[in-house]
């Protein structure tokens, strides 16, 4: 009975993390939730793995419940298949907090070494691993909960979201340690925590990159085409009409259309359609780019591409980091049978390759990324360092009316903050937005509406510390702290 109560407490702490992220953005919940996890582990070290695993299972199930919308409501997968698959991802991801707590309880017995050295390092290394293993899925990493309301967000340009994650875990470890310490230790920990969080306020005031050239006007299309209609042949004419009309009525230096806005291969579009779009854009003096599937140059595959329609030759960016099970089937011999139950067109995209050069539009170099590619901070550093503006095109109609699009917006905010550049987001049904270099939202379109969001963006130049060094300093630092905790634990072990 006691074990059950401990696991229920861990599940409650994990499930509450839903409210730490967008759209709720109660950033203080995350360090408190991790502190509760650490305290439960300190009191019951023999159950450390299961405490961490149950916390993770509850946290990731509550944060990713929108997977059910995608599999059942939109893709049409039967309930008896959809429900187990919804739980499969959290069940896998929960292994990382489970192992982090198990190792924290065993590396060293001294509480200060466990919660100030081992636990923050292990937690961050676990978050990095789950963002890399099996192509990675870093959504709901602790650091994202701090973007942009928390003082800790100020550390993102220094060491990226991973440094922020480490500081959240360190703060949680300090809180847990306070419960089990005397007043002197509590006072010292409180002063240190205030220094770390207070320094974040100062860091948020630093302008890491500089303006370049004049601001440009931008128009970001949001067609609000329902996913069940998007690829329907009967709705093709309506989709093409919606985006043509939005281009025809927009007035800006740069206009972006969302991911696969034109739901046909580039060379299969109706004759003259692209010429008409180009003509409307040229008459308005507007650079135009759209998401559209494109065949590879050898014709053997196809790409999830963003194509510029105002430059000779139609240069393009093609998505590199594809979504497993959505844009490609990892082990078709094992799970390919599931797709006979699903309405999932184009699930066999090819990768466009890493570090593709920016596209030059409206005299700015635009570094594009498609859909959840903006979940992977280090992968975007190379293109962003060559660009003056970043842009994300997405289609989140897959996830219905859920928190997924707000969580995705928060990821884009993190990328803008890390790289000190504007991030333009053109999405099918939300959240279409203009994000400033400090990660704050300049303007955002109401979700589930058909409109063109208009505003201004400013090209930027220069590199943030994170762009220069990537994740390496944080990962090396965490590895060193973990080694120190192990050496101290071995030295003092009876």
TrEMBL record:
GO terms for molecular function: N-acyltransferase activity. GO terms for biological process: lipoprotein biosynthetic process. Keywords: Acyltransferase, Cell membrane, Membrane, Transferase, Transmembrane, Transmembrane helix. Its main location: membrane. One of its GO terms (cellular component) is plasma membrane. Signal peptide: none annotated. Pfam families: CN_hydrolase, LNT_N. It is found in: Cell membrane. The chain crosses the membrane at residues 48-68, 80-103, 160-180, 470-489. Residues 221-461 form the CN hydrolase domain. Pathway: Protein modification; lipoprotein biosynthesis (N-acyl transfer). It is a multi-pass membrane protein. Its EC number is 2.3.1.269. Catalyzes the phospholipid dependent N-acylation of the N-terminal cysteine of apolipoprotein, the last step in lipoprotein maturation. Belongs to the CN hydrolase family. Apolipoprotein N-acyltransferase subfamily. This is Apolipoprotein N-acyltransferase. It comes from Chromobacterium rhizoryzae.
């Amino acid at each position: 009975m006691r074990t059950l109560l401990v696991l229920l407490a861990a599940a409650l702490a994990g499930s509450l993390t839903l409210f730490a992220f967008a759209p709720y953005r109660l950033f203080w919940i995350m360090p408190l939730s991790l502190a509760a996890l650490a305290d439960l582990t300190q009191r019951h070290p023999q159950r450390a793995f299961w405490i961490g695993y149950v916390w993770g299972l509850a946290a990731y199930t509550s944060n990713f419940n929108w997977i059910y919308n995608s599999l059942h409501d939109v893709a049409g997968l039967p309930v008896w298949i959809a429900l187990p698959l919804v739980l499969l991802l959290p069940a896998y991801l929960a292994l990382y907090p489970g192992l982090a707590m198990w190792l924290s309880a065993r590396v060293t017995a001294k509480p200060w070494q466990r919660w100030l050295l081992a636990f923050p390092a292990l937690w961050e290394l676990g978050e990095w691993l789950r963002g890399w293993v099996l192509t990675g899925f870093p959504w709901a990493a602790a650091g994202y909960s701090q973007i942009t309301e928390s003082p800790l967000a100020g550390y993102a340009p220094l060491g990226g979201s991973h440094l922020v994650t480490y500081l959240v875990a360190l703060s949680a470890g300090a809180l847990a340690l306070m419960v089990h310490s005397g007043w002197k230790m509590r006072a010292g920990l409180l002063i240190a925590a205030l220094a770390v969080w207070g320094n974040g306020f100062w860091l948020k005031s630093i302008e890491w990159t500089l303006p370049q050239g004049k601001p440009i006007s931008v128009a970001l299309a949001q067609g609000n085409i329902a996913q069940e209609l998007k690829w329907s042949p009967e709705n093709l004419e309506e989709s093409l009409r919606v985006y043509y009309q939005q281009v025809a009525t927009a007035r800006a230096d740069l206009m972006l259309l969302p991911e696969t806005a034109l739901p046909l291969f580039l060379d299969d579009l109706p004759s003259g359609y692209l010429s008409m779009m180009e003509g409307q854009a040229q008459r308005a003096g507007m650079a135009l780019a759209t998401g559209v599937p494109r065949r590879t140059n050898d014709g053997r595959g196809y790409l999830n591409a963003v194509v510029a329609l105002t430059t000779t030759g139609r240069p393009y960016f093609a998505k590199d980091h594809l979504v497993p099970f959505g844009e490609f089937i990892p082990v078709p011999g094992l799970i390919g049978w599931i797709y006979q139950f699903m309405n999932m067109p184009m699930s066999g995209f090819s990768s466009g390759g890493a570090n593709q050069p920016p596209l030059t539009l409206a005299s700015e170099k635009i570094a594009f990324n498609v859909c959840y590619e903006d979940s992977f901070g280090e992968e975007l550093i190379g293109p962003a360092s060559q660009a003056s503006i970043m842009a994300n095109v997405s289609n989140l109609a897959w996830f219905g009316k859920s928190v997924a699009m707000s969580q995705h917006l928060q990821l884009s905010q993190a990328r803008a903050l890390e790289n000190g550049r504007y991030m333009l987001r053109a999405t099918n049904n939300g959240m279409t937005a203009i994000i400033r270099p400090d990660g704050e939202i300049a303007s955002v379109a109401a979700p589930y509406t058909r409109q063109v969001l208009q505003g201004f963006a400013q090209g930027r130049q220069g590199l943030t510390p994170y762009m220069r060094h990537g994740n390496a300093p944080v990962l090396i630092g965490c590895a060193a702290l973990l080694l120190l905790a192990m050496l101290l634990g071995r030295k003092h072990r009876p």
